[in-house]
Amino acid sequence: MLDISDTSALTSSLSNNVEPSIQIRNLNFHYGEGDLFKQVLFDINLDVFPGQIVILTGPSGSGKTTLLTLIGALRTIQDGSLQVLGQELRGLSQKKLVQIRKSIGFIFQAHNLFYSLTARQNVMMSTDLYPHAAGNVAPASVAADILGKLGLGERVDYKPHALSGGQKQRVAIARALVNRPKLILADEPTAALDKKSGRDVVTLMQKMAKEENITILMVTHDNRILDVADRIINLVDGNLESDNVVNDSVTSDSRTFML
């Protein structure tokens, strides 16, 4: 675990160099009220910087998905501060929250594909929503290219009913990655994939993170992909228990820490 003896001095030093993609301070979250009150996140403090791949682990029910959805501006911030891509989410209007989501690629456990559309057309749904992301390249070509990188080059014109569960998940992953978002939030992205397909997915994500300075925060129980992480954070009973730097280049860069 990265030993930080003076976090205030380090925070000041880092702020002069690079702004974190995710900055969390004293974040708490609960469900229900009265007799149904249940707190699921306790005083979370965390910084994640551009180009980092951070894997979030922990037992089921520890608050991982709740934290991911808060960072993704899919839930209302109740207590504390949460900044994403330089914008404080607490108190933000729905219109501005929608704008922030446009810069985030979401990968959920459920693929949520449109069954009337082909794999290519499902991916193009993202490029149609954000046409500026593709630049001057035709959206159909961009969609086919990323599907090819995920091993689906021969199935771009297949509809979901003709695809396996793992193939459908890769289409959903392609849809999340196609616009080169600044931040990718992934909830068990390789759970439905075999070893090779899972490796193809995380290799592409790792390449994008390093070459395009994209931040990736991934919840997973898949020990096969832990080696792509720069940091592995363990969340237990709503508390951040550890923050381990596993990439030596990150340690030497001194850009990551948990307060």
UniProtKB/TrEMBL annotation:
GO terms for molecular function: ATP binding; ATP hydrolysis activity; transmembrane transporter activity. Residues 22-258 form the ABC transporter domain. The keyword Transmembrane helix does not apply. Keywords: ATP-binding, Nucleotide-binding, Transport. SMART domains: AAA. This is ABC transporter ATP-binding protein. The lineage of its organism: Bacteria, Bacillati, Cyanobacteriota, Cyanophyceae, Pseudanabaenales. PROSITE patterns: ABC_TRANSPORTER_1 (PS00211), ABC_TRANSPORTER_2 (PS50893). Gene3D superfamilies: P-loop containing nucleotide triphosphate hydrolases (3.40.50.300). The keyword S-adenosyl-L-methionine does not apply. One of its GO terms (cellular component) is plasma membrane. It comes from the Bacteria.
